[in-house]
Design goal:
GO terms for molecular function: hydrolase activity; nucleotide binding. The protein is about 35% helix and about 25% strand. The chain is α/β, with parallel strands linked by helices and about 375 residues long. The strands form two sheets. Strands 3-4-5-2-6-1-7-8-9 form a nine-stranded mixed β-sheet, with helices on both faces. Strands 10, 11, 12, 13, 14 and 15 form a six-stranded antiparallel β-sheet that branches. A hairpin with a 4-residue loop joins β3 and β4. The longest helix is centred in the middle third of the chain and has 17 residues. The structure holds guanosine-5'-triphosphate (GTP).
Length: about 375
C-alpha cells in the first residue's frame, strides 16, 4: 500500500517540511537554484521570499495562479506574498482541489537574518497546518571563508548552525592558502562542537544535493519507516568528546557565544512513567523554553514499553508526542534524547531528567520541590557546568 492509497482512506500523512537558513550571502539562493534542477525535487514546493532574486527564467513553465509556479523539473515555486501561513494554506488548497497533483515536500528559504525557530513555531502551533505538515529538518548554510567571523559576530548565525540537522559548507572552493585551510579545519571542529549531530556537507564537492538535504527527519524517505539512530545521530555526540579537546588546540577557541551553547544526549534503559515524562517536558518548556534550541528523541514509556514516544521540540514548542507502533532498531529500546541548549548547562538538564525519571542523584532536590518552584532548583546558579 502506498502513501497515496492510505491517504484516500484515512487522514493524509503530514507533508514533510524543510527549512533552509544561512546568514546573508551564505549561498542560499545559489543552492536553491541548483536544487530546483534536481529531479529528486519533483513534487516539492519551494517557498521563497521573492522570485526576483532567483534565476528562474529558464526553469519557468507555467504560472498557475495564487503565486504558485510550476517548473520544468516538476517542482512548484511560490513566493511568500501574504505570510507563510497563507502560502502554506494555498498549497493545501491547491492539493485538496486537485489543482496541484502531488505535493511530497515543502522547502522554505528563510531570510538571512532569521532565527528559524519562529518559522517553525508558526507551523507547529497552527491548529490546522500542524496536522498537515511536519518538520522534516533544518538545513543551515555556512560560508567557509567568512563563516567563522560571522559566527563570532552574530548570535543569530550561531543559533542557525546550532539548530541545524544538516550544515552545508559553501565556498570551500575559494580556500587557497594554508592559513585559510587551517582556519577552515578549525571551523569544522567548531561546528562539530556546537552541533555534533548535524552532518556537514561541502557544496562545491557536490554533496549538497536533495538526497542529502531532504528526508533528514525520523522517517526514512525511501522506506517511510522510522529510523531513530539516523535521526538522532547519537554517536556523533560521543565522538565530539575527543573533538572538543582538539578544538582547544586550534587558535580560535575564544568564542564566548559558543560556550553558551551545549549539545548533549541523555539516555536510560529504565522505562519512564508517562506522567513523569509529561512533567519533565512541561517544566523544561515553561521554565526554560527559549533555552532549548532543539530537543529530539525517543522515550520508553513504563505503561507502554513496546511503543516508543517520539519527542521533537524547537524552543518551547513541541510537536504533539507521536507514538510509534514499535521500536525500529532491533534491540536498542532505551530512552534517548539529544539536546542543543543555550545558557542551559548539561548537568542541570541531567539532574532534572534524573529527578523525574527515577535515577535520582543524591544531591538532587525531589520532584515535588522542582514542580513547586522550577526556577529555584538546587545546584543551578546560572553558571555552567
Ligand atoms: N565560489 C563560490 N561562490 C559561491 C558559493 N555559493 C555561493 N556563492 C556566491 O556567493 C554570493 C552570495 O550567494 P547567494 O546564493 O546570493 O547567497 P544568499 O545566502 O542567498 O544571500 P542573501 O540572499 O543575501 O541572504 C554569490 O555571489 C554566489 O555566487 C560557492 O560554493 N562557491
Amino acid at each position: 500500500m502506498t502513501e497515496n492509497d492510505a491517504g484516500r482512506r484515512g487522514p493524509k500523512p503530514p507533508i514533510p517540511l524543510t527549512v533552509i537558513t544561512g546568514f546573508l550571502g551564505a549561498g542560499k539562493t545559489t543552492l536553491l537554484n541548483r536544487l530546483l534542477k534536481d529531479p529528486a525535487m519533483a513534487d516539492t514546493a519551494v517557498v521563497i521570499n521573492e522570485f526576483g532574486e532567483i534565476g528562474l527564467d529558464h526553469l519557468l513553465v507555467e504560472g498557475s495562479g495564487e503565486g504558485i509556479v510550476e517548473l520544468s523539473s516538476g517542482c512548484l515555486c511560490c513566493t511568500i506574498r501574504g505570510d507563510l501561513v497563507t502560502t502554506l494554506e494555498d498549497l493545501l488548497r491547491g492539493l485538496d482541489n486537485g489543482r496541484i497533483a502531488r505535493l511530497d515536500r515543502v522547502v522554505i528559504e528563510t531570510t538571512g537574518l532569521a532565527d528559524p525557530a519562529p518559522i517553525l513555531h508558526t507551523i507547529m502551533l497552527h491548529p490546522y497546518l500542524s496536522l498537515r505538515y511536519r518538520l522534516d529538518g533544518v538545513v543551515t548554510l555556512v560560508d567557509a571563508i567568512n563563516g567563522n567571523a560571522t559566527l563570532d559576530a552574530h548570535e543569530e548565525a550561531l543559533r542557525q548552525a546550532a539548530v541545524a540537522d544538516r550544515i552545508v559548507l559553501t565556498k570551500t572552493d575559494l580556500i587557497e592558502s594554508d592559513a585559510q585551510r587551517s582556519e577552515f579545519d578549525g571551523f569544522l571542529v567548531r561546528l562539530a562542537t556546537l552541533n555534533p549531530g548535524a552532518k556537514r556537507l561541502e557544496a562545491s564537492a557536490g554533496e549538497a544535493v536533495a538526497a542529502n538535504l531532504l528526508g533528514t527527519g525520523l522517517y526514512d524517505p525511501e522506506s517511510k519507516i522510522p529510523d531513530v539512530a539516523r535521526w538522532l545521530n547519537e554517536e556523533a555526540y560521543r565522538d565530539r568528546a575527543h573533538h572538543h579537546h582538539h578544538g582547544h588546540d586550534h587558535s580560535h577557541d575564544v568564542n564566548r557565544h559558543d560556550d553558551r551553547i551545549r549539545a548533549f544526549t541523555l539516555s536510560t534503559s529504565k522505562p519512564i512513567q508517562a506522567s513523569a515524562l509529561e512533567m519533565f517536558l512541561d517544566l523544561m518548556r515553561s521554565a526554560h523554553g527559549p533555552k532549548l534550541l532543539r530537543v529530539k528523541g525517543v522515550v520508553r514509556i513504563a505503561e507502554d514499553p513496546d511503543r516508543p514516544v517520539v519527542i521533537h521540540g524547537v524552543q518551547h514548542v513541541f510537536h504533539p508526542p507521536a507514538t510509534l507502533p514499535a521500536w525500529p532498531n532491533g534491540d536498542d529500546r532505551r530512552t534517548r534524547l539529544v539536546f542543543i541548549t543555550s545558557d542551559l548547562p548539561e548537568g542541570f538538564v541531567r539532574r532534572m531528567f534524573d529527578a523525574f525519571t527515577g535515577g535520582l542523584a543524591p544531591d538532587t532536590p525531589d520532584r515535588q520541590a522542582m514542580t513547586d518552584n522550577p526556577l529555584s532548583i538546587g545546584g543551578f546558579s546560572g553558571t555552567f557546568d
